[in-house]
Amino acid sequence: MENWRQIATEEKNSNTEKIDTLTTLEMVRLINEEDKKVAVAVEAELEHIAAAIDIIAAQLRMGGRLIYSGCGTSGRLGVLDAAECPPTYSTDPNRVVGLIAGGKEAMFSAVEGAEDSEQLGAEDLKKIGFGSRDVLVGIAASGRTPYVIGAMKYARSCGAHVFGVTCSPGSEIEREAEIAITPTPGPEVVTGSTRMKSGTAQKMVLNMLSTGAMIKLGKVYGNLMVDVKPSNEKLIHRCQRIVSEAAHVSEEEATAVLEKCDYRPKTAIVMLLRKVGAEEAKELLERNEGKVSAAIGEV
């Protein structure tokens, strides 16, 4: 029988034992004090996060995919991170994928028992044709979720890179991972409520993994998201501002050039800075792995 008291995310927080007796302001101050510990916990894992980013970027460059596997809050965070990549970086929706135990229904309500099956974790990877070029990131605050462990074991059997994100040191997920990312922000404000500090820590890590990989793939120039997909009015205006700022031209000039290259900010920036047409700008980007800085000769 597993001793849940020994799992870091299930420990009782002595700092918050009287939280139900506090004023509302005292309560939120206490929550905020606990939240401050999250960034410090993530900082301790930066070397592991950086190593994972380098591998993810390399595999994506070779046509592989980044796949997240998780349950409950952890699974939802993986799905969220994956869902935000296409509009932010114009990635194919199938390049970064979030799998959650219980499927789409589990995004909005609990699917009882789904997380307790190792077989289900493996089957969900098989359904998407998971292979050796892909990267799996197993996410579980407790570090012991069978669904995630099953997915990690299957991914390893495929010869793929397998990483783990957990908030419980010494867990099975940590042992299964090629690279284990284990921020440990301490016991939750409400005992066992891992949507709080653990969830925040995991969100910070996933932000770094996907953003870092996209930067490595040339989807950022300076600190501008130059591969943004103009799928709504806000993002159309963002494209115009990005090109205007990057190429040091007016938004009217930026818009005119964007209209000549199907509203692709990277292409428009290269057109303006290298004073070339759309086709030549595309060729320059292709020869330089999609990196604007290299295409315009900055590096």
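That was protein one. Protein two is written in the same sequence-then-structure order:
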Amino acid sequence: MNLSLSDMTLTRRRSFITFVTLSFLLLSLEMWIATRVDSSPRPSMLAIAIALDIAVGVPLLFYLLLVRKKFLPLTSILPVCILTLLVLRLILPSSEQSILRFSDFLIPAIELSVAVFLLFKLRNVIRDVRRARRESLYFVDALRIGLGKSVKSDFVAAIAATEVSILYLVFAGWFARFRTSRPDVSVHSYHRKSSFLFWPLMALVIVETFGLHLVISIWTQTGAWVFTSISIYTLLWMVGHIHASRLQPVIVDDQYIYLRTGLVWRGQIALSNVSVVRKSTRADRQTDGFVNVSLLGDPDVVIVLKDPETLEGLFARKKEARIVGIALDDPEAIVENVGDRPLRGGS
């Protein structure tokens, strides 16, 4: 099963790389042709040909390589169509922009349709999230399950759940507390040792953003604001990551170890597949199949597996692990806790 998941992830990654490569080559060729539109004997016909190549070609590649193979839902093709229309406005000479007048109405119509679709789905998403929350240990998991039922794609649901979680955690994370009604689980935190290091990093990002914004604005105001926007998003992500690390501890019950590292790593390891949980050594970090899921720095505990397990990182990226390293606030507690679990050996 793990191998099939790994193969599927590799295939999806190859399909995405192929789409990006072919789209880049197509756009590069069309941009080169567009530079010769004004000197063409029939500029209007050439401009129409360029528009059709891009407006049809890029979405078609997206459909064939990603949607048709069920890596992404059909609705994901709408943003691609909008982007191709915006790219056309940048590529075509101003003298031939008249053929794109239809997009002045098409783009708002698509955006309005998407907004109506999302509002229509919002009620179902909220209902599905509430249902999932009753059985999920973590809010982000419930959000992902609820979104997955609507978008029909685990990959899209994973990314959407992360982005929505960031907004929620940035504003509500300050007041939220992790709670579980299950008496059969043990909770192991990992945020106290490492999360305080994020605050100096955030202060450094703020100072660096302010300085580089002034420097970049000397050449381009647009570039300066683009850089600043990316930095602001980075800060929001870091705040969300800190809160997520506090609200998503590592949990152990009678069957699984539920691994979480803020917004980055997630995994569910069967206790029957655990060989041993012990303190980490330097040799562990040099072993093939070692994955460090610590919030920051080196792990102090490793989970040695009998068979590889698939862990999930950012953007639903899958990685197989034979030894999982993590830094916990009380590493001895999980070593003792897992050793005391009667189902660890699968009996």
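The first strand starts at residue 186 and ends at 188. Keep this in mind for the problem set.
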